[in-house]
Amino acid sequence: MIPRATATVIDATLIEVEPAAALIAVDIWAEVPDAREPWASLLPPFGVSQDLERGWRATGVELARWWLIGPLDQRSRQLAFLAEQMPDSGTVVDMTGAIFSIRIIGGRWRSLLMVGGVFDAEDPGFGIGSSVGTLLHHMTVRYDVLSDDTVIVHVAPSYAQHLLEHLRQAAAMIDAMEP
Description:
This protein is α+β, with helices and mostly antiparallel strands and 179 residues long. It contains 4 helices and 10 strands. The chain has helices at 39-42, 75-85, 109-114, 160-177, and strands spanning 14-17, 22-28, 49-51, 57-62, 65-70, 90-94, 100-105, 131-136, 139-147, 150-155. The strands form 2 sheets. The chain has a 5-stranded antiparallel beta sheet. A 5-stranded antiparallel beta sheet has the order 3-4-5-2-6, with helices on one face. 20% of the residues are buried.
C-alpha cells in the first residue's frame, strides 16, 4: 500500500526566450499631418500594442514611430509592402536582430518587474495592450502586456543573458516568498 501524501503546488513564474522574429520600424514624421493617414487607423497610438494580421504585432514606441514584430519568414514581403505604401514623409527600416524578447508567464510578473525596476508595474492603468520603455536592472527595456498573466520584455541582445539571469533569480525569490 502506498501512503497518502500531501503536495504543495506552486504557481511558478515561467521565463521563456521568444523565438527570433522580424522587427520593422515604421517612422511617419509628425510635422506632416496628412502622412499619418491611412496609417493612423492601422497602427496603435504611442504606448499601446495590438495584434495585426498573420502573426504580426504593432507597438507605438514613440509619437511617430512604431515597431512591427512578426514571423521571420514574412519579413521580406512585409518590408516590400510597407515600403511601397510609405509616403515620402516616412520611412521603413529593417531592424531585425536589434531586440531579444523574453516572455514572462504567471500571476506574479508585475512583482517580478518591480525587482530592480523603476517603473510601477502594479499601476492599474498598465494593462493588456500597454507598452512602455523603462529601465530594469540597469538595462533599457520595453514591456508589452499580452494578458493578465503574460508580458513580453524586449531588450538589446547584448544585455539578454544578464537580464535572463536577473529575471530567473528574482522569479525564484518571489515564487518562494509568495505561496
